[in-house]
Design a protein that fits this description.
Layout: E1 2-7, H1 18-24, E2 30-36, H2 40-52, E3 56-60, H3 72-81, E4 87-96, H4 103-123, E5 127-132, H5 135-145, E6 153-155, H6 162-170, E7 173-177, H7 187-195, E8 201-203, H8 225-236, H9 240-254
Parallel strand pairs: 1-2, 2-3, 3-4, 4-5, 5-6, 6-7, 7-8
Helix pairs in contact: 6-7, 8-9
Length: about 260
């Protein structure tokens, strides 16, 4: 079975067949799914999905591009949700400088990134981290907030160098690998997979986005993770079954409430 560690089934792309698809995924080999919040509103819909489906769990958090909507009132609401029994992580949190170039906006992202990291520590939950075009600041903040303890989380949709991946792993983070690893031009990610211990890799889709080959350009869903597992198996010189087994165990280790 495959543990899908990052999905967005509350997205409108699934409006027409969401219930049918989610009900069918276990028979397609997808044993557990984490649906990930990216805003206050999507955190609410994520929680509803986790309540409706036994194999779906929730991550609660606000994506860096949405932090301008955060305030003390809704942050207090977010804090309260971390006690929900189906909540297994704080995420999707982090930094995204690709879209947001202004220093004031980036400063706001850093402030709420730190506060959501603190919330995760208070709650005893791991973090799901989004980082795009912000490698140095992401690394610096994770180091400053680790307080000398092993951090617990995953760098979602990893896009930096193999060398930086090794630094994140040293901090205690897992590397999230999705459909991009199947793309012909994904040299850095393939090298990262080759050099990262399988015991530090998680499978994820980011669906409905980032569909792997041979489905690139279409709506992604968790059943396509077999292609990601196949590519990782090829790069690591092991079987797909071994990739599924180890990444399943990795996810249970990280997302303890899903056990």
């Amino acid at each position: 079975m495959i543990f899908e560690t990052h999905s967005h089934y509350d997205d409108e792309a699934f409006a027409e067949d969401r219930a049918k698809l989610l009900a069918a995924l276990p028979s397609a080999g997808i044993g557990r799914i984490i649906n990930v919040g990216a805003s206050i509103e999507s955190t609410k819909t994520t929680l509803k999905l986790a309540e409706d489906y036994s194999h779906v769990y929730a991550a609660v958090g606000v994506h860096p591009s949405e932090v301008s909507d955060l305030n003390e009132e809704n942050f207090a609401w977010l804090r309260a949700q971390t006690a929900h029994p189906k909540v297994v992580a704080v995420g999707e949190i982090g930094l995204d400088y690709y879209w947001d170039k202004e220093e004031a906006v980036q400063r706001c992202q850093r402030e709420w990134f730190r506060r959501q990291l603190a919330l995760a520590r208070e709650s005893g939950l791991p973090v799901i981290i989004h980082s795009r075009d912000a490698a140095e600041d992401t690394m610096a903040i994770l180091k400053e907030t680790s307080e000398g303890k092993e951090a617990v989380g995953v760098i979602h949709c990893y896009s930096y160098s193999p060398e930086m991946a090794a630094e994140f792993v040293k901090l205690g983070y897992y590397i999230g690998v999705g459909g991009v690893v199947t793309f012909k031009n994904a040299r850095k990610l393939k090298e990262t997979v080759e050099q990262t211990p399988l015991e530090r890799i998680l499978l994820e889709t980011d669906c409905p986005y980032m569909a792997p080959e041979p489905h690139r350009g279409t709506r992604n869903d968790s059943s396509y993770l077999i292609h990601v597992a196949d590519k990782i198996a090829e790069l690591k010189g092991v079987t797909r079954e071994e990739v599924e087994r180890v990444t399943w165990e990795n996810a249970l280790t990280l997302f303890k409430r899903s056990v």
